Amino acid sequence: MPVGHGLEPDEDSPTSGSPPAAPGHPGPDQASKGYVDDIQFMGFNSRAEIQRMAHWAPWMELQKPEYWEEQTRSILREKTFFKVVMKKVFHIHNQSMADTPKILVTHKIRTDGKITLRCLVLNFYSAEITLIWQRDGSNQSLHMEVIETRPAGDGTFQKWAAVVVPSGEEQRYTCHVNHEGLPEPITLRWGEEWDKTAGLSLTGLILVSPFPTVVLLQPWFMLKVVIYVYDTQNMRNNGERKIMRV
């Protein structure tokens, strides 16, 4: 008999099945369902008020309490393992993200005839960055308009600094940017742009449980394999782990 086991949000759960998510929670961080011939016979929801593997089919009521305790322990071991794995993955991912800033200088004519030069840095991680204008090598920190570093909405950050200069003197001004994701401090003038795209791209990560569970239910044999699909883009945005439907 074909048997499947996967992760997906609980929907239309019967009263005898996996407990629904507790009030206030949109869905499970971890959900597990077991199937035989496309019929679900057990399920687990990590956001239920009581975290346990529970039966979904009447014939599973014959299983002893020890069976459900072991199934629950197995699921929780998997969750602990993947928390460790994802911390390592995100450490690598965050390091690669630090290699992808984009820097450009814009030019705008003001109504008084002077020029606004704006040095804009996009798509950088982490948030710590140094951004300053110089005129002939002299810092213009007292004459700059600078915004606070702010999130871009995709897990990276952005920042800009602007300075007002006399028309025709634009090339005397340079923007200096220093960030851990840059191979070296970058210096730009108006009309120049620096863009480097490198590193690891993670929009989705598939992990297979290292704890295959063998369940003996007479008269058939079942091998349970759990597959996790992590939405890493949402993790960066929301600062939490989420599991996509599989």
Automatic annotation (TrEMBL):
Topological type in the membrane: Single-pass type I membrane protein
SMART domains: IGc1
Superkingdom of the organism of origin: Eukaryota
Compartment list: Membrane
Regions annotated as coiled coil: none
Keywords: Disulfide bond, Glycoprotein, Immunity, Membrane, MHC I, Transmembrane, Transmembrane helix
Transmembrane segments: none
Annotated ranges, domain Ig-like: 101-187
A Pfam family assignment: MHC_I
InterPro entries assigned: Ig-like_dom (IPR007110), Ig-like_dom_sf (IPR036179), Ig-like_fold (IPR013783), Ig/MHC_CS (IPR003006), Ig_C1-set (IPR003597), MHC_class-I_related (IPR050208), MHC_I-like_Ag-recog (IPR011161), MHC_I-like_Ag-recog_sf (IPR037055)
GO MF annotation list: peptide antigen binding; signaling receptor binding
Family from the record: Belongs to the MHC class I family.
Protein name: Ig-like domain-containing protein
Species of provenance: Neotoma lepida
Biological classification of the source: Eukaryota, Metazoa, Chordata, Craniata, Vertebrata
